[in-house]
Amino acid sequence: MSTDTPRAQPAAGTASSKGDMQAKRRRRPEKKVEITDPKAIRALAHAARLEVISELYSTQSSRTATELAQQTGLTPSAMSYHLRALQKWGIVAPAETAGDARERRWKAAGTDFTINSGGGVAGPDFAVVDLELQAFRRRANAYARTRDKQRKRGESPEPPAAVVLATDLLYLTPAQQRELTDKVFGLLRNYELEDPGNIPPEAERIATMWSMIPDDRSPEGPGRKDPADGG
User: CA dist 46 to 28, 75, 79, 194, Å?
Assistant: First the structure.
């Protein structure tokens, strides 16, 4: 899911060098769901709804309200309410029922989901960003607690190679910002499964986050000139 960011076209890569031993990477048809209505964006500012969007769009698999409720800590009836609200805005859709037809299954209404508020500074999408940051903190804290329990049991957990948080400061023109964003999303697509139901045996579910935001502490460096000075 992205907020006010264009998505790159599918990358050309398919399977890894291990051939048939690895699941093929994403080449499925693209269907982008873009939300621009401020009312719809405000409706997304709810942790459980964002969790549902992340789950359904990332896995491209169907889930029942009960399954999604277990992930978010809600009751199935409360989750059904949120799913109907997301369906109203065309974000999720009913899925085909396999086996037990008594409970409806839900799926993502597309392959990609984007929030675009038109770049308004006080846009409601910033509430969504705040919830995404909370979700990141929750994952990081949960992972830290798991590793701490392993240490207390006398186990030697592997180094947290999967946990990456890197920051950098760049000076980018608007064109460079768009180029970098396209390249990052294009790279990530190389690692998205073509068939989400065919997960490699040793694969671990990993949450990723990509962010680019103007730095409010930007100093007036030696190479910077005030446009009013001319030259």
Answer: 29, 15, 12, 29
124 pLDDT more than 60: no
Least confident of 48-57, 62-71, 116-125: 116-125
List the one residue out of 89, 111, 87 whose CA is nearest residue 35.
Answer: 89
Handedness of CA 183, 188, 194, 200 (dihedral sign): positive
DSSP letter for each residue of 96-153? ---S-TTS-EEEESSSEEEE--TT-TT-THHHHHHHHHHHHHHHHHHHHHHHHHHHHT
For the ranges 127-136, 167-176, 187-196, 212-221, the maximum mean pLDDT occurs at 167-176
Contact of 194 with 23, CB cutoff 8 Å: yes
Torsion of CA 23, 53, 50, 54, to 10 degrees: 0
Q: Is the pLDDT of residue 176 over 90?
A: yes
| pLDDT digit string, tens, across residues 177-207 | 989 988 988 888 888 877 777 888 888 888 8
Token pair for residue 201? 């045996």
Pairing of strands 112-115, 32-35: parallel
Nearest CA to 6 among 175, 173, 127? 175
Among candidate residues 149, 175, 167, the one with its CA nearest the CA of residue 212: 167
